[in-house]
């Protein structure tokens, strides 16, 4: 390849290279030729020609630093064609950290005083692009002089160069203040744009300059007024809008003419309106002006462009906390956006709709949100449950709403939804008959929703007598026989869709029905005995214990399997029967699994016999106060469920590891093997606003193996209404000193992202 080929041919040769190696070969040969010609005496326009090719090589990512001195020489050339390429090379190959940049200071100063405006323009652009603090101090007087020149083309570029100087050297702002104010009298839009940017920079960096430039507000308002009411100007018109860029840059003066007269049928007009709205919302505006801004965003929601609808809902989400009533006026339009085909628009509409829910509109809003559940993304059902908990107008409405959610998307709700609903049903004794009939019909219709099936089985076991009576006045009259109830539970036990936990609910419910029916006890005994040899250890243990109740302690079966008592709650945080932050006493695992109610007072020797169903009790034990509650006794065999003895049911206490801005994180460690352990991280939100996109990331030493399981969710409702749990499995075969660094990230309800890191140096319990 000839060293003197034109730039176009070199580009063509590089593009035709089939491999990376072939491309490098072409560039290396051309760079070698350029180096050789740089050392030769200039012949014709070869210098600019070679530097142009070198700049293209630099754009491809290859080294081109050997052309820096050639840029310095070409900037000093009297030819405009060489100056242009030289200044372009300086902007691309030089920066303020390199000593070579100081060599062009004198050349730039000379060119700033050149008689040709285009040479002056090259020097201004270069100084604005890569001028160091030293260069800015040396050349600032020259820039101030050019700001007062008569040429609008030069004043425009000098203003932008002054902006760079102010950013580099704050002290030089006072030098440009008088000239900046005088630029507002110019008619050229480019000069006005540069002047407004320069004034903005001066005000941001000097409070005294801010007070001085407040006097220019009438000038800026007059400029804005001229832009809005002026006629057609082909030089500045963009889709029928007169210079929208200049309108946006000075819209902070909140002139209402922008908001009322701008054409909102075109993208350019919507851009100007959107910037105006952001300005009104960011500054301390009067209430009427903020309402106008919200109404403009409401009009955006009716736009056919999904991008405009998206940014409108994003902006409304930021202000819904401060301007709630103004946003409420557009509730109908926001709810309609839930039907949009675009997933991102639906997600924003859902977040905004949930933020608009209040005690006064909970019924209307939840009706729309429940219709949305059939097509909503995973996780939205959880938020609907949290909202219904917070603003439920009555207990029956609360139960109906959660059951609707479980019926529609029971597989996507959090694990704590089942015990929370069981607690709610237990505490509303007047709705027991209504709830058990409704859940029984739901169980007959669909057994594919695990959460719904578990609650239904629990209710049938607890309130089976109310189901069989059929005297519920709040539902349609229906007669349920003993065989019907047992058939429903047996269907759950035999279904391939039932998890072991769900089968445990169904087996316990079947056992409890043995004290609520009279004619099918033998059938129940047969069903329970089948699972005495089940492969699942949990089901097998339950079946063995229940068979022992039938054989040896049948006289105590009715007392052991009576109804669960009302679950007590803490005195703080009540909201329609729920606590705001899981303040209710947690339902113990045994209680959720329906192992039994409180035992009646029995002689100590009878209780010891009952606990020692398989024998082996050598010393008297204290009687347990409740079946399956782990706080009864810590002695082996002290828990009624621990019929085999030796099981530790004392729960591990969580250890707080992080608490900041209302977000807290606790840790529970459990050793699973000699080198393995499980770490459970639980996050909660005690602030008054919801948190979304909550994620946890963990890092450990290289020799430790880490596996993070799927979290329970990514949404933390306000005031601790629910928690997010993340399980981390660790394997430390080398027994190194274990440390873990956790990154916490989430988005606030205002749309801002937050990230923080915490390091854990010790793991309690290991």
TrEMBL record:
Membrane-topology descriptor: Peripheral membrane protein
Q: What is its main location?
A: membrane
GO BP annotations, alphabetical order: intracellular protein transport; vesicle-mediated transport
Entry's Gene Ontology cellular component terms = AP-1 adaptor complex
Would I find Membrane among this entry's keywords? yes
Which residue ranges traverse the bilayer? none
Domain GAE, residue spans: 650-764
Which cell locations does it reside in?
Cytoplasmic vesicle membrane; Endomembrane system; Golgi apparatus
Protein transport recorded as keyword: yes
Give the keywords, sorted.
Cytoplasmic vesicle, Golgi apparatus, Membrane, Protein transport, Transport
Classify the source by domain of life: Eukaryota
Q: Which family does it belong to?
A: Belongs to the adaptor complexes large subunit family.
Kindly provide the name given to this protein in its UniProt entry.
Answer: AP-1 complex subunit gamma
């Amino acid at each position: 390849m000839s060293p003197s080929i034109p730039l176009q041919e070199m580009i063509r040769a590089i593009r035709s290279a089939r491999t990376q190696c072939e491309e490098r070969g072409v560039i290396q040969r051309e760079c070698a030729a350029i180096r050789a010609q740089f050392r030769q005496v200039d012949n014709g326009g070869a210098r600019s020609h070679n530097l142009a090719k070198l700049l293209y090589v630099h754009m491809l990512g290859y080294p081109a630093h050997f052309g820096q001195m050639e840029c310095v020489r070409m900037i000093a050339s009297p030819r405009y064609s060489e100056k242009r390429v030289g200044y372009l090379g300086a902007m691309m190959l030089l920066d303020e950290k390199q000593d070579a940049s100081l060599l062009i200071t004198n050349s730039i100063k000379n060119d700033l005083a050149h008689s040709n405006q285009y040479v002056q323009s090259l020097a201004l652009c270069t100084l604005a692009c890569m001028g160091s603090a030293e260069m800015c101090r040396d050349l600032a007087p020259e820039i101030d002089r050019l700001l007062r020149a008569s040429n609008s083309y030069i004043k425009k570029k000098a203003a932008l160069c002054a902006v760079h100087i102010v950013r580099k050297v704050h002290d030089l702002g006072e030098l440009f203040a008088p000239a900046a104010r005088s630029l507002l009298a110019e008619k050229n839009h480019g000069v006005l744009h540069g002047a407004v940017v320069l004034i903005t920079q001066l005000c941001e960096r000097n409070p005294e300059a801010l007070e001085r430039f407040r006097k220019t507000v009438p000038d800026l308002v007059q400029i804005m007024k001229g832009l809005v009411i002026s006629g057609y100007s082909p030089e500045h018109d963009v889709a029928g809008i007169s210079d929208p860029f200049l309108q946006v840059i000075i819209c902070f003066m909140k002139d209402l003419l922008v908001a009322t007269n701008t054409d909102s049928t075109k993208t350019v007009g919507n851009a100007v309106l959107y910037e105006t709205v952001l300005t009104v919302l960011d500054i301390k505006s009067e209430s009427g002006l903020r309402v106008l801004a919200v109404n403009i965003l409401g009009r955006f929601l009716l736009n056919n462009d999904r991008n405009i609808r998206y940014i409108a809902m994003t902006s409304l989400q930021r202000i819904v906390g401060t301007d709630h009533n103004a946003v409420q006026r557009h509730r109908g339009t926001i709810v309609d956006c839930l039907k949009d085909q675009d997933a991102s628009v639906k997600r924003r509409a859902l977040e905004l709709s949930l933020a608009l829910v209040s005690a006064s509109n909970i019924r209307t809003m939840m009706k729309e949100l429940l219709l949305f559940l059939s097509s909503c993304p995973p996780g939205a059902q959880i938020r609907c449950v949290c909202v219904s908990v917070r603003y439920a107008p009555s207990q029956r409405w609360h139960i109906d709403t959660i059951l609707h959610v479980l019926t529609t998307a029971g597989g996507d709700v959090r694990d704590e939804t089942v015990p929370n609903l069981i607690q709610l049903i237990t505490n509303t004794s007047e709705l027991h008959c209504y709830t058990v009939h409704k859940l029984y019909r739901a169980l007959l219709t669909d057994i594919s929703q695990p959460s719904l099936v578990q609650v239904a089985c629990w209710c049938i076991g607890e309130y089976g007598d109310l189901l069989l009576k059929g005297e519920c006045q709040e539902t349609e009259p229906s007669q349920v026989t003993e065989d019907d109830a047992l058939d429903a539970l047996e269907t759950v036990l035999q279904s391939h869709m039932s998890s072991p936990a769900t089968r445990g609910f169904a087996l316990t419910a079947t056992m409890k029905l043995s004290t609520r029916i009279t004619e099918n006890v033998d059938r129940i005994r047969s069903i329970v005995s089948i699972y005495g040899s089940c492969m699942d250890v949990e089901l097998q243990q339950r079946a063995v214990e229940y068979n022992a109740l039938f054989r040896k302690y049948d006289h105590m079966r009715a007392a052991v399997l009576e109804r669960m008592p009302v679950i007590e709650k803490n005195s703080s945080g009540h909201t329609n029967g729920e606590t705001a932050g899981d303040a209710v006493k947690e339902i113990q695992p045994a209680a959720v699994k329906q192992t039994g109610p409180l035992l009646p007072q029995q002689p100590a020797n009878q209780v010891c016999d009952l606990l020692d169903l398989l024998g082996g009790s050598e010393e008297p034990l204290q009687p347990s106060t409740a079946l399956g509650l782990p706080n009864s006794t810590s002695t082996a065999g002290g828990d009624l469920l621990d019929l085999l003895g030796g099981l530790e049911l004392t729960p591990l206490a969580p250890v707080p590891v992080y608490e900041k801005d209302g977000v807290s994180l606790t840790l529970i460690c459990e050793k699973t093997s000699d080198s393995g352990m499980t770490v459970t991280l639980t996050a909660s939100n005690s602030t008054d606003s919801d948190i979304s996109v909550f994620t946890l990331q963990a890092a450990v030493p290289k020799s430790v193996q880490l596996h993070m399981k799927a979290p329970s969710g990514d949404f933390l409702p306000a005031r601790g209404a629910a928690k997010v749990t993340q399980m981390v499995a660790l394997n430390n075969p080398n027994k190194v000193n274990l440390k873990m660094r956790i990154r916490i990230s989430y988005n606030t309800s205002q749309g801002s992202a937050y990230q923080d890191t915490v390091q854990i140096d010790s793991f309690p319990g290991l």
